[in-house]
Amino acid sequence: MRILGWAHPALISLLRYHGTTLFVDGTFRCVPSGYAQCVVFMVHDRASGVFVPVFYVLSTSRTGDSYWDMIHFIVQATDQQIEPAEIVCAFESALMDALQTQFPNAIVLGCLFHMKQALRRAMKRCAIPEDECLIGMTQGVLDTVTVIEHEQVERALTYSVEKWKQFWSYFERTWLKQYSIEVWNVYGLDNELVARTNNPLERFNRELNSRFPTPHPSMTTFVTVIKTISQEYVRRVADVPRGRVRRVPRETIRLPEAFDIPPDIESDVEEDTALSIADAG
């Protein structure tokens, strides 16, 4: 297993502030031959409002050990002064476990956008009609399970008709058993604190990959490009307090309204009748 990481010294200092928001995700097109991925560690600089990519880490592996090692190296690079309040990352169990182990006091959340993409793909696999998929993906419908009390999520899954049973079986298997509910449900957390998506890092990864004319560049080209990008971000962060660049306000994610799931009640409609009504609608 090989791990190589780079960061501009001036940007590393941004990780030393208490209570930061980190974004962590891997990208692949820009990775030199012989490596599996480039993991980018981004921080939201509250002073400038800039989302700053700090560390670029190449790794030949995507195991829990490789993630633990790269995070450990970053902790050491900050002289053990990195104390994030929240971390948003892709839904990858090995990465999430490593982040939670290294930063036990941080809130580790999976990207809501990635979760909704996965739910959409599951609906298509379950042959749920397109109009019902569109309703399900509307804000305040399926994403409501991310803001209700943890104990109520399983109860909410029972309120569905037969054609959705396969989908809810997938939901329970993936989002209640494979992943801990704490990594996607934000009930009880302050919306001003919580970042719900990896969108800033997703945008940056597209920018990063666009800097390379062909996939899988040489190591020399890779290092030259990330050095140039890091220098650009050093100037960008410095220009905001000097008034040369307007401070960018942080995007606020509007959460759906939480509600209480009613206790189980006896339905006075037979299941077959209910299915017929649902199909007719």
Automatic annotation (TrEMBL):
InterPro entries: MULE_transposase_dom
Recorded coiled-coil stretches: none
Organism: Phytophthora palmivora
Listed name of the protein: MULE transposase domain-containing protein
Pfam families listed in its UniProt record: MULE (PF10551)
Keywords from the named record: Signal
Keyword Protein transport carried by entry: no
Signal peptide residues on this chain, from the entry's feature table: 1-22
Domain MULE transposase: 22-117
